[in-house]
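Support case: user asked for a sample of complex input and structure output to validate their parser. Sending the pair below.
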Amino acid sequence: MSLHETNKTDVPYGTLDLLVLKTLDAMGPLHGFGIARRIEQIAAEHVALNQGSIYPALLRLQQKGWIGTKWGSSDNGRRAKYYAITAKGRRQLEAEVAKWQRATALVAKFLEELS
Amino acid sequence: MNLRQWFVRFASLFQKARLDAELDEDIREHLQLAVDENLRRGMSQEAAKLAARRSFGGIEQVKEEYRDQRGIPVYETFYRDARLALRSLRRNPAFSLVAILTLTLGIGANTAIFSITHGIVLRELPYADADRLTTVVMTNAQQNLIRMPFSVADYIDWRDQNTVFEKAAAYGDQRFTLTGDATPEQVSGAVVTADFFSVLGIQAELGRTFSPDDDRPGKTPGVVISHGLWQRRFKGNPQVIGQLLTVNARDYPIFGVMPPGFEFGSRPIEVWRTLILQPPLRRGPYFLWVIARRKANVSIEQAQSEQRTIAARLESTHPKENLGAGIRAGSFHEDFVGDMRTPLYVLLGAVFLVLLIAAANVANLLLERAASREREIAIRTALGASRARLARQLLTESLVLAGMGAAFGIALAFWGIYLVKQLAPASIPRLQDVAIDTTVILYTVGVSLVSGILFGFFPVFHSFLASISDTLKQAISKGGGVRRRIGSAIIIGEVALCFILLVGAGLLLKSLNRLQQVNAGFTATNVLTTRIAVSSAEYSDDRLVGFYEELISRVQSLPGVQAAGFGNSLPPDILEITDSFSIEGRPWPREESAPVGPVLFVSPGYFPTLGIPLIRGRNFNHQDRLNSPPVTLINETFARRYFPNDDPIGKRIKVGGPERPSAPWMEIVGIVGDTKYSSLGGAFEPARYQAFTQVAWNGLHLVVKTSDDPLRLVPALRQEVARLDKDVPLDRVRTMDDAMQQAVSEPRFRTLLLTTFAGLALVLAAIGIYGVMSYAVTRRTREIGIRLSLGARRRDVLKLVMADGLTLGAVGIGLGLLGAVAGTRVLKTQLFEVTPTDPATFLILSIFLFLVASIACYVPAYRATRVDPLITLKYE
């Protein structure tokens, strides 16, 4: 992690899966680099992402059956592995999003009421 | 993790190469795309590559994390660590060899003794629902007997009154003479009531066992034979059922053949004959042992409480004969192997201590290695290996060692069990069935795991204590302190454990020595013995007496024979009959127990042959016949106990009490020396002798005193016996010296095993002390060099180093003393005339162990004195 990015935090534990799922849901099949860049673009000011760390996350999601892979070719014509969200992954995403929203709403309400 | 994930991860284990390649490709492509993008932004080739790398993060970390995610992490790490461990073991062959050898000895001894304990004591008996089998014995509070057989009358009464047992059977051991077409032979046999086999729940291999009413009067008695006898005497002929077997000169139809491996009791029985329960005329003789099967859901305690009721009822019905008689029910398993339990548990404890010492030695070796690896470990820590990861690595090395120790240990145990089967006395039940089975393997694996973690813990602990940054700077001097404290603890522990084992072995040795020096009251040198019984049905009393008398006169005329005689019992431990007696003019006191003692039927030559002195009066002679006035001899104990104030000679005694009015009075004509018949360890009992010519007893032990090796007489003896009756076999031919040896074979074997383990412990402990002291000397080389260069004499250095080691040794022996005082109590039942805290044994072994420790210290200490001050000072 570079020194000049000290005001950013690491990706909170457990949220990387959600970010990946949401990215694939919104963007359609992407290769690893595309996913990493997309997350960086959106969250650039908030988190410092080690792009490499999405690979273990991708594997984890595959093992759970939430995403699938197929080989395709990248923008510059080379062979690349593409990841796409599955139906099961989509259901999981909806559940996760709902859960996340409930949690943030609760925290927000708390912070508001007690401040 | 759910099932699917487990499955995927498990499957990944087999596709490592492909998955790794794919990940590499993914990463390569990822970086390429990043570089492309950076180039498009106008970066130089170099800067683009660098930026791509930076935003990707640590490639190796990603791969590691990916691999953890992919496979089954524990297995993956273990597998990698194990390979690493094997590699590092190969790099240190000397270390590995010593460590594995030590563990092999420790684990092998444990595996062997555990499988023996498991096979003999723990494993369920091979009968149907064996936990419901119950041994029922009579007791007699009046005579202090806690275990005696039933009489037929008591058995029948008991059988008809009990409600807690589903089935019951009575049996009595007997020697049978088999004659007929094949050579005559004597076999161990038993008479059994009809339900004997169905109580055990065992079917015949061929034919049938006894039917429920086979023991009623009027039924034709038959026999069931063992698989071994069937093979040997009938060549495995399947037509054997219904054929006749001549047992003690009577023909019995063969009902069935038992399956191979069927065993009951400690002796291999070959013939079971139906015992027809004739309505008894009196209560006694007592010769029936009883085994019964409890009804389901009846506990031993419930059964026992009913036995008390029945016994009380019998006592009130037969107040005279059953005075003080009780009935006791106990677990058959306990009864069968109960005697073996304590000795085996003691051995199990002993090998466990040996294993602890072995583990301590390995811990010590590992520590030494950990010390020399301090820099390696510090570097790996600095490079980012977590403590947990390092600990796991060190533990894995220990577990790999333990695993190899277990594998070789099991191999060693195979050999050990074989050896034990060869050397052990035949009287140990179930020993021949002992084998290494799944339970044993599980035990061994468990023990190895525990010991691996135990000694693996030391280096881990050590590496945690040695602070990382300090270690990098001054690994050697810092770690040394921790290391020395642990090393001291190891020495003290080893010496203490070793001392406990030594004392145990020392006590058994002393006890065995006492037992072997016991005065059994006879001279065993150059005496041959064999039991001779005729086929009773063909012999009248007169002919029987004639046969034995003729045999003696023929044996006496054989060359080299000095004396010969017969007796129905034989010292030191074959006692056929114990019976009560009355002394004329002294009615049995109401509240006291009836006097009892061994009864022997002997020929006049019996006493001189065995060197039993005639103290007073006369020996039996040829005038003592069946129809002459009955006479008897008593031993000194008898005379002292029952005639303390008057002369026994001329007094009269008789068998039994008032319940046997027909027993004739016998005149005491002489007093002979005391002889042991029950066991070497027991006391002299008040024995009485009758002339075999006045009893006509079938089944007598011939004793022959020869001028040289008695076994050379056997062929001539066999010939003489065959000449008199070709159907009479020579049974149990041996010398009296052998009989004496066999009498102590069990304690000797136990002692041998425990001494072996104590010796092993001693060697291991000595190696341990040597190792720790050598290491300490190496550590202190510099200090010693300085001392020497400042003018210390070499003798002072020797003293300095020795004092260190010997202090630890002394503390260890001190702790061992405490442990032994507390621990040797378990040996109590196995010791003869030695107390578990025998001061002489404790003292001698303290000195001995201290000497061994001194030698183990001396070698490294001596080496310290050879230190060259110049070289050591340059050392840092």
